[in-house]
Predict the structure.
Amino acid sequence: MNRRGTRRNRWVEKVLHGVLLLCFLIRADGCRENGTGPSSLQTMPFTLGFSPGTQYVYDNWALDQYSSQPVSMTLRTWRVLAVGAQYQGMSGVTVIADSASAGAGGSDTLYFAASPGGNLSIYGFLARIVKRRLGWVIAPEWNLVVSSSAGAMGSWAVGTADSAGQETVYGNFAGASDYFAATVDSVTEVFPTYRVDLTGSTLYYSLWFSNTPNAIVRLLEEPDYDAEGQLLELVAIRSGT
């Protein structure tokens, strides 16, 4: 069986979200007919606009390496500590405290840097994944997770996933917009997202972004025969006070 082909079928998405997404789409279509729903054109490019104190709560699923089925779930919270910081040669950095333990794959602090044109880099993104999946330690660096300048049909180099700098991971935009739902300050909202796929020789990872509300909505690290996968899905946003 072709493992990459199996991944691209996105069996996990269908199992976890098929019925739910249908409900979201029905509701979203009704909103658009009334002229009050968000347009999918509003989702690109992603503009990082997190506010200090805001919390993003995710369902964090572990995915079985053989069947791709979810085997356990915990809650995971990102809390925005600061914006406009300086870190590792980047300015305008957003600093986030991740409730995941350091032993689960790296530092419990995340660093995001966005450009005015919609590019998004995350410090140590690939190093965290490699450590969690394989137990290998590679030097963290800024990884270009989103490159709006590459265009809808283009691709870009995210970074390398090995210590020798030979295993390059590439990113590209998916062709379709998906709808999701989450509670924003206790009010359920339905909104469009766009997906970015990151692909390496042993890695297939996808992220879903929304501008309204401003969030990374979903992060899917697909399993392989030698490593479990992981799915983070946004369930709530709580504004800081």
Observations:
- Confidence is low (pLDDT under 50) at residues 1-43, 102-107.
- Residues 3-52+77-179+191-222 form one domain.
- The chain has one domain: 3-52+77-179+191-222.
